[in-house]
Structure formats: C-alpha cells, structure tokens
Design brief:
By secondary structure, this protein is mainly β. Helix content is about 5%, strand content about 40%. The protein has two domains: about 170 residues, no CATH class; about 100 residues, Tumour Suppressor Smad4 (Sandwich), CATH 2.60.200.20. The strands form five sheets. It has a six-stranded antiparallel β-sheet, with no helix packed on it. The longest helix is centred in the N-terminal third of the chain and has 21 residues. It is elongated and about 65 Å long.
Length: about 290
C-alpha cells in the first residue's frame, strides 16, 4: 500500500466487510493464518534487508563503499566509488563510475534519470547484492539501500489472543468530497494523505470515531494509537487495513492491527496516528511489541 510516497509494497489480505465472521470458525482461522504469513513474508522481503537511507543534498552526491561518500554503501559489498547522483530541484541523474557495472532492470547503465518511489515505475539500481532507489517524502529526496543477502535479526510477529469483541462493525461517514489531510511522520514532518471520511463505532463500551486514509484504491487504512501503545504494543501506533465501505458499513478487525515498518527498521519513514486517532481505551488485540530493532 502506498501513502503519499510512504510505500508499503503490498496490501495485506483483509477480511470481507459483507458479514461479521466467526473468529472461531475454520474459515476465519485459515484466513487469519494466511494474513499473518503475508505480513511476515512482506517484512522479510521488503523491510528487514534495508541497510541504509541517505538524504540527497543539492549538487553531486557520491555513492560507494567509501564511508566518506554521501551515500555510503556497506563495506565489501560494492566498489569504493560506484557513481554520482547529480541532484537539483527534485531531479536526480545517476552517472556510473568508469569500469563499474550498475544495472537497471537487468541492463547496464552509464547514466539514467532516477524516478522516485512516488511514481508508477521507480528506478532501481543494482550493484551486486545491493539495490538502491530514490524515495520522496514531501520535498525531501533520499536513497534507500537494500542488501538482498542480508537476513537481519527478525522477530516473528507476536499477537494477542484472538477476540470476537475486537471485531467491530463501523459506520462509514464520508466527507462531501475526499480531502487532503496532514499526517505526522517519524521524520518530524507531515505527510499529505487522502482521506475519504471517518469511521464511527463502539468499542469497550465507548463510542469512537477515527479518520481513515487511502490513496489510489477504495480500501481504507486506519492509523491508531491506544492505551497499550508504548507498553505492550509499538509506541508510535499501529495500522489496520479494511475493505472498502459497503452499504455505509466497514468491518474493523482489531485482531489484525499490526506494527508499522519502523518497528523493524530504522530506514522506514512511517506515518503516525493523528491526534484524532488516539483511542481512549486499551486495544488488547493485534500485534504486540517488545523492541524489534
């Protein structure tokens, strides 16, 4: 899932909103297991292998395993000088160093315009086991580095026991027109995201309302914080994906609340819950957290 340049690379399977399922049924248990595996596999593939994130400065930015470079790559994984990124006003051009093999989509490149991850076809450069691509976060641009041979120290997700009380039908309250909203991020700056409306429901005997966000698809994402945050769950909050609203209703499964990528890597740029989405109750459902990185 993609949120204003904040790329999550896959939309995890979610439960259908047509009817409230029985969490004790074989069908729900199997679907939850499939979702759990998808979550774990996505992290292993997309987030655990990250080894760096470096923000570009105006002018020439050197890339290589020389640790004095502007984009220092892991030592022993690449030549001392791989090339240079000339960056200005949001435009970046990569030029490979002489005699260094750098590829894009399997083809050697000497010079190439870098398309950021906010576009449909971001440019990915490959040097040995390393993959590099440019990310855009509002007006900031950086190079994110992945080492495909790096397994990392990965902790498998641990969850609260499944509970039917955390499977809630909510009423979708659409805005007259979808609007742009400012969502705080771990970078200390706001991200502009699309919000089609809010969801209202009762949980633990209290009526609550959350702002939903989305981008390019009808599915909703809820970014929440609750009384477990910083105690038994990730301090900065958790995410919940839902299906698109149907007949004015949305099924929210708090059993599938999960930690953002920032819980597993220092090189993610996660959004955080807006103040409106700080729940006044403890949501003892979904993923726990005990310090993953």
């Amino acid at each position: 899932m993609r949120f204003s340049g904040i790329v999550f690379l896959c939309l995890l399977p979610i439960v259908a909103a047509a009817a409230t399922p029985d969490i004790h049924s074989a069908a729900y248990q199997a679907d939850f297991a499939k979702w759990h595996d998808s979550l774990e596999n996505s992290r292993r593939k997309n987030w655990v292998p990250l080894v760096g994130l470096f923000w570009l400065r105006d002018g020439d930015n050197r890339i290589g395993s020389d640790q004095k470079d502007d984009v220092p790559l892991p030592e022993g994984k690449a030549p001392a000088q791989v090339g240079v990124i000339s960056f200005h006003a949001g435009k970046a051009v990569f030029t490979a160093a002489p005699s260094v093999t750098v590829t894009n989509q399997g083809k050697p490149v000497k010079q190439i315009d870098l398309q950021p991850d906010t576009t449909d076809k971001p440019t990915v450069l490959q040097v040995g086991a390393l993959r590099m691509h440019m990310i855009q976060r509002e007006q900031r641009f950086g190079i994110r580095v992945k080492d495909t041979s790096h397994g990392g120290d990965f902790h498998e997700p641990e969850f609260f026991p499944l509970s039917s009380s955390y499977l809630v039908e909510a009423t979708f309250l659409p805005y007259a027109q979808p609007k742009k909203v400012a969502i705080p991020t771990v970078l200390g700056q706001d991200a502009t995201m699309d919000s089609p409306g809010e969801v209202e429901f009762t949980l633990n005997g209290q009526k609550m309302r959350l702002q939903a966000v989305t981008e390019g698809s009808p599915e909703l994402m809820l970014i929440i914080k609750d009384k477990t945050s910083g105690k038994t769950t990730y301090p900065a909050g958790r995410f919940i994906d839902t299906d698109a609203p149907k007949d004015g209703k949305v099924l929210i499964d708090f059993n599938r609340a999960y930690s953002p990528p920032c819980a597993f890597t220092a090189y993610a740029t996660c959004p955080m819950p807006p103040r409106q989405n700080w729940l006044p109750t403890a949501v003892e459902a979904g993923e726990k957290y005990s310090g993953h990185h």
